[in-house]
Amino acid sequence: GEEKSRNIDLPSDWVRLPSSNAFREGPWTDREATLIALNGLKAMGWAATSWWLSSIPVADGMPAGILQLALPVAELTPPGGKPFLFVRNKSTQVGKTPSALIGSTLYRLEDGKVVSFTVPAGSAGGNRLSTRWDLKVSETGMAEGKLSITLRGGWDYLMGRESGSTARKGESVARRMLASTPFLTGMGAPSVSESGGVFQIQVPVRGLIGIASQKDLLVGFPAVGIPGAADLLEGTGEKGLRFPFSISQEFVVRLPAGFRILEDPVMKAKKEGLVAVEEIFRNRDRKGLVEATQVVSVKSVRLDQKAYEEMKESLFRALRWGANTIPLRKR
Q: Within the chain, which residues score under 50 in pLDDT?
């Protein structure tokens, strides 16, 4: 197998002879399994084409090598059906693009020439990261309740690349998002579900978000870290994004009895243009509740200088959402 792989200029761990017991019995690599599946489906009347996801962009005049081929992708069309993309070991539903491919460029050789295909990037709403906190805060500033996390579209891949079970993936995502918050040590066992390209996590949480001083209590906005934010940049250009995206952060907090808000936090709203920011704060004084929502939306993958700067500023606001505070005083 090793000698043959050298003859066709492939790494030795890519190729095994069909006569090998290891090849017949498996386990197969992603490359082997994908190519075997393509041949089998073709024999059953399917249209099957192989593509490759590259670790770096491929372009004319740029050096390229086999080791750039990071992931095999199958384009499949059942008899009488519509084509769809399939990636082994990724959550794939017929008609749904695997989140790992959203906005990416795929490559293949055709008649000795490199052919590329860009997977549709979708919309800002289709690529949304959503969080919602439902908390109750005590007079000491201790908060307890539930955090809900929803990953749609490309966010599922950016935030949940871990292999393994759905439960393991959900716990890993929750831990990474809570790593920089006061809630990590008080995180409970997550409840996880996945359906229709939407990955949802609900996790019990407990953490100190308030600073108490005599009759005053300063409560910080509950917020998560967003470790996948830097990966939104496509990498092919300074002002390129992998896909349009939105980030929605929301909370409902029940205040301790007898406390009132001294001053509402300053919110921002910008609804026009390719980059939109909407922030709303509501004081439900009679119910003893405060509610707040922030939605950042970037509606295009190609941004001019002005829109690019607005995107960076808006993304920074999303990452700094937890720096806002609510000053309270006991009546």
A: 1-10, 22-23, 235-237
The residue with tokens 């990037």 is 121
Give the predicted TM-score (pTM) of the model. 0.83
Are residues 305 and 292 in contact, defined by beta-carbon separation less than 8 angstroms?
A: no
Identify the DSSP state of 257. Answer: T
What pLDDT does 4 receive?
42
Residue with the two structure tokens 């950016």: 158
Q: Which residue has the tokens 């921002």?
A: 268
SS3 60: coil
Cross-strand pairs, 250: 132, 293
pLDDT of residue 61: 59
What pLDDT shows up at residue 232? 76
Whose tokens are 């086999």? That residue is 66
User: What per-residue confidence (pLDDT) applies to 7?
Assistant: 42
Angle at 118 between CA 31 and CA 272, to 5 degrees: 140
Contact 161, 143 (CB under 8 A): no
Cis peptide before 27 (omega within 30 of 0): yes
HSE (side-chain half, CA atoms, 13 Å) at 197: 18
For residue 185, the tally of other CB atoms under 10 A from its CB is: 10
Per the structure block, which two tokens stand in for 125?
């709403």
Taking the CA atoms of the chain, what radius of gyration do you get in angstroms? 24
